[in-house]
Amino acid sequence: MNNLRTTFRKLMLYPSAMVGVLVIIALVVVAIYTMITIPYSKAITLWRGGEEVWYQNPRFAPPAWINLFSSKKYSESFAVNTKDGGITKQVIPGKDGISTVEMTYEFDFNYDYYPQEMLFYFTSNFREKQPFVSIELLTPDNRTIRIANYAIGNKFTYRFSQDQKLRTKLRAEEAIPALFSLPDSEVPLKGTYRLILTGTTFEPDSNMDVEFVFHGQVYGLAGTDHARRDLTLPLLWGVPVALAFGLMASIGASVLTMIIAAIGAWYAGWVDELIQRITEINLVLPFLAILIMIGTFYSRSIWVILGATILLSIFTGAIKGYRAVFIQVKESMYIEAAKAYGASSSRIIFLYLIPRMIPLLIPSLVQAIPAFVFLEASLAVIGLGDPVLPTWGKIIQDANSNGALYKGLYYWVLEPAILLMITGLGFAVLGFALDRIFNPRLRDV
Amino acid sequence: MSVTTHTPSEKLAIRRISANNTFFRVARYVGVRLLTLFITVVIGIYLTIMIANMGGYVDEIIKNQIRDSVTQSVAASPTAQQMDPEVRKKLIADRIALEEKRRGLDTPIAVRNARYLVNALQLDLGRAINLTSDAGSKQVRLIILERLPATLLLMGTSQLFLFFSSVFIALTLSRSYGSFWDKLVIALSPTSAVPPWFYGIFLILIFAAGLRVLPFGGMVDSPPPSNTFDYAVSVLKHLMLPGLSLVLSSFFLSVYNYRTFFLIYSSEDYVEMAKAKGLPTRDIERTYILRPTLPNIITNFSLLIIGLWTGALFTETVFLWPGLGRTLFQAIGLYDVPIIVGSTIIYAYMLALTVFILDFVYALVDPRVKIGE
After folding, report:
1. How many percent of chain B have pLDDT more than 90?
2. Which residues of B26-61 are buried (b: 16+ CB within 10 A; e: fewer)?
3. Which of the two ends of chain B, N or C, has the fewest CB atoms closer than 10 A to its terminal CB?
4. Domains in chain B, CATH or no CATH each
5. How far is residue A431's CA from residue A313's CA, in Å, rounded to a whole number?
């Protein structure tokens, strides 16, 4: 405990290490927050969900905050519904069970770029006769544009951009820009637009509802990808995945390496010889190629990859370093004393030898974390990430395979990349400072 | 203190015995060392072959692929459609058997692995299954030789530049430690936790996507320029970003490590002594600091040279650089075991040979080291 406090006090002398500690604490907090607010199963269904989950979002939309840095404003996305009162709905009963449903929605459009798409999702219930709806748009300059008339079934989707008749009516190649600008003009018309939907139901208990989805050019805090998925989900879930993989791989590999080195040094003879030979064989094995082979042939599950990573990282050069120190420690007086009072081999290894090495272990353990975090991301980037989990590497892979950099969708690559960078550097600076504290030979120079 | 005297003939005999001893010691050492290294290589390669087959699991995948493609090609051919179902079934079965025989899937896996191991150890790399070289050959040797120049160009320029610049800069820094530049290198050394392909993405973003001055990837413009000078310029342009990302990702840590290393040696008493004698800094650096650190530097350098062989798998993939790393990745994706094993065996031999030669080099540069003791 006292040791811990002095270490921490020494750590305070390194401002960079303190930044690293803060970054790590922040990451842990975010990871816990993510796992509580978006439970694993929900994250998976969302991440693997298709159009039915993400229909409200535009495709390839940068985050909304880019408007802060741009003098020309991109339109933001939204979705409103009659069910929660977002769209005002008024039912006016008429004769013979025929009633009129008036739905209006007013929204401000003060942007310099046209929206991607607008959609209506109608739902209705009826026995025999389908309800009918007509859609109109009232522009800021008080033109009323008749959009369409439709008889709607139980479910009906109307897409503005797909409507051939509307295009012909507007005499335009694209319906949406024509709706949002003055006739014969190429600039968006700013102001308040009003959508007026007049529905007619032909049965007493027949009813209809509508959801209006406006796909702008930007979306939310992190933007969206090619499958309309909100990138905040994989960005947030990437935190616990990266931390878990990095920590487990690093702890697993370094602790096992140390235990094996201690066993080799303690028993000496053929055990030691065997460990040395295995280490040499492991140097010949192509580490990355084996991981990729396991990913390609066998399983891409993050647990399998983690296990293989740890196994291949045990018998590395580090084992020789530890072994050299253990052989020195083995000759110490207190080990002689332990032998004299009859301590068992396992007791000596685990209670006397290994604890002595913890100061050596901790810096290298922390320093190894970024390598494993990036390994997981690297595998994901070449398409060998866990197919189920939303991770940072997966975002970069999606971005790369959709030519994000080529198309100028920088946010898509930058967001996960910067998070990876912060995580990696956070652990690296901390490990670096720890190394200088625990290895005085380095501190002096 | 006793003084022993020998007659001249006795002295000669002693010298002969000690020479004999040295010879035997070295010979025995060389024998044992070569044998253990060879066994290490054999086991390493055998394990790689096993993993590349996933203990026979890959055979199942390939057999299914064959069945699929044969059935489809037969079903698609107009002549087969008019055949009797029985005849068609037999045709399919025959063609599957033929294709399996061509791939050698009819012999048991253990036999194949053993044959494979023996061939690989003799550097008979065999033929690739799916991959072909750009010239159209399926010989693994030719495929590897074709991709080797690209990897050597990329890795060679970046790693050699990295090595020499970091040793040189580290020497300079170790002379003025505590200075601004020294502190800067220390502060920046954690940046090496980030792998090269990652810097690559940022570099692509800045120089290819943003400024549009350098290409996104590949090795030469398409179509390749016909005259040699333009070709070289084009290759150089394509080389810039992957090379820079490889250098950038290990530069600061490399400088830091060498600097710390030199500093440890320059605080030795004999260096202080040399300084006190007033020797010029160049001499101190050369004979008092570089000389004792030479074994380490040589080790690093030789590991760097054999590391060139493996290429930079992720960086080459991100930059679409047609080198060995990307070939290995493609080969894995196509279950092309011969290429995976071929690449591994050459690396294993080079590593074993380097380890073996290094022992002698140590003895040459450091008089305190004696082989086989």
Report:
1. 4
2. eeebeeebeebbeebbbbbbbbbbebbbbeeebbee
3. N
4. 8-121 (no CATH), 140-365 (1.10.3720.10)
5. 18
Please give the Cα distance from B352 to B368 (Å, whole number): 24
Q: Are strands A117-125 and A132-138 parallel, antiparallel or unpaired?
A: unpaired
For B193, phi and psi rounded to 5 degrees? -70, -15
Q: How far is B52 from chain A (nearest CA, A)?
A: 7
The ipTM (two decimal places) reads 0.78
A443 token code pair:
């501190």
CA A260 – CA A254 distance, rounded (Å): 10
CA distances from A47 to A43, A235, A334, B252 (A): 6, 11, 56, 38
Residue B158, pLDDT > 70, answer yes
Q: Using CA atoms, how far apart are residues B73 and B80, in angstroms rounded to an integer?
A: 9
Strand order in A78-81's β-sheet? Answer: A78-81, A207-215, A117-125, A155-159
Backbone angles phi, psi at A387, to 5 degrees: -65, -20
Whether residue A135 contacts residue A148, with contact meaning beta carbons closer than 8 Å, is answered with: yes
pLDDT in tens, B65-112: 888 888 888 878 777 777 777 888 888 888 888 888 877 777 777 888
pLDDT of residue A28: 94
| Residues with pLDDT less than 70, chain A | 1-2, 440-445
d(CA A145, CA A181): 12
Measured CA to CA, the distance from residue A137 to residue A176 in angstroms comes to 12
Burial zone of B218 (CB within 10 Å; 0-12 exposed, 13-18 middle, 19+ buried):
middle
Chain B residues in contact with A413 (beta carbon < 8 A): 201, 205
Question: Which of A250, A277, A284 should be substituted to probe chain B, the one whose Cβ sees the most B Cβ atoms within 10 Å?
Answer: A284
Contacts of A292 in chain B (CB under 8 A): 313, 329, 332
Distances (CA, A) of A84 to A210, B244, B253, B287, B353: 11, 55, 58, 83, 74
pLDDT at B224 over 60: yes
- Smallest Cβ distance to B193: which of A288, A417, A428? A428
In A, which residues are within 8 Å of B192 by CB distance?
428
Q: Does B177 touch chain A (CB under 8 A)?
A: yes
Burial B267-293 (b: 16+ CB within 10 A, else e): eeeebeebeeeeeeeeebbeebbeebb
d(Cα B73, Cα B83) in Å, to the nearest integer?
A: 14
CB contact under 8 Å between B193 and A286, yes or no, is no
Under DSSP, the state recorded for A69 is G
Identify the structural domains of chain A with CATH numbers, from first to last: 2-45+230-442 (1.10.3720.10), 72-215 (2.60.120)
Residues near A400 by beta carbon (within 8 Å), at least 6 away in sequence? A381, A413, B318
